[in-house]
Amino acid sequence: MGWEFIAFFFGAAALGLFILFVVFIAGLLKWLLQGYFLFRVADIKSYHLPWLAFIPFGTFYIGGQAYDGNILKKESFDPKHIGLAFAIAGLVLYLMGLSIGDLVITYLLIESVAFIGLFTAYVKQPVIGVLLALLNVVTAGIVAIVILFLYSRKLKDEFDGTNNFGQDDLTGAAGADQKHNDSSRPSHPNDPNLNRDI
């Protein structure tokens, strides 16, 4: 009777350790992918301190800077101050958590709220940006990775001058020889964020 219990205990412990290892690897992969794509977006958009994308509360700082012009009126606040407010609020709320589960849920909620500006910048509609943030909480941050990947590709194409508004890569590459004004950012004529006063 005693050996069966010991075998069951060690089997359950081994299974628990394996599950913890899988969760750790999945979390590490999520952190690396999200950090990389957030860094690409922050670098292309010239956000302050893009390398903070790889630091947990630095994501709040980068996400808060995206509120400028997407959620709030452009230049109504200094984007760095918005990002700093998100980072401080996230840190305070994170430290107020009572258990490991509360801390993880709080972090996901604050991160999703901070990313509303990035989501809105990608989809160009604030309501859909909020819905994506809610979906990001439900999927434990997977939506943020997908949206940041798509947004970084979109920004890269816009700032490189290729693949604008339905042009394929060959047409964009062939037209790369022509002189164009690099200081102007291309925008879609139906962009609801143009001249938006919030």
TrEMBL record:
Residue ranges with Polar residues bias: 186-198
Record key words, sorted: Membrane, Transmembrane, Transmembrane helix
Superkingdom, natural source: Bacteria
Residue spans crossing the bilayer: 6-29, 49-67, 79-96, 103-122, 128-151
Segments for region (Disordered): 169-198
Protein's UniProt name: Cbb3-type cytochrome oxidase subunit 3
UniProt organism field: Jeotgalicoccus coquinae
Lineage, top ranks: Bacteria, Bacillati, Bacillota, Bacilli, Bacillales
